[in-house]
Amino acid sequence: MLFLLFSIVVGGLLIGLLGRLVVPGPNPIGLLWTLLCGLGGAVIGGLVAGLLFHRPGAHWFLTLVLEVLAAALLVWLLSKRRRRHPV
Question: What pLDDT sits at residue 84?
Fold first, then answer.
């Protein structure tokens, strides 16, 4: 159980970091928001891959690309909001 939680956090963080790399310019979000964007991107990208492919596991690379693109969209939306309304 602990390993599962650890792998979810690490996977979400990696997908969030890749999403941040895709978005040009400064991203004024911290590590927690990067993690949350990565987890959200993984869920959204996985759902889209499930709708597009009969077996998303067989298309793991395309599923990963969809997850990173979804995370990048979330990072971009959050960064845009943070620039307009700084905390």
Answer: 63
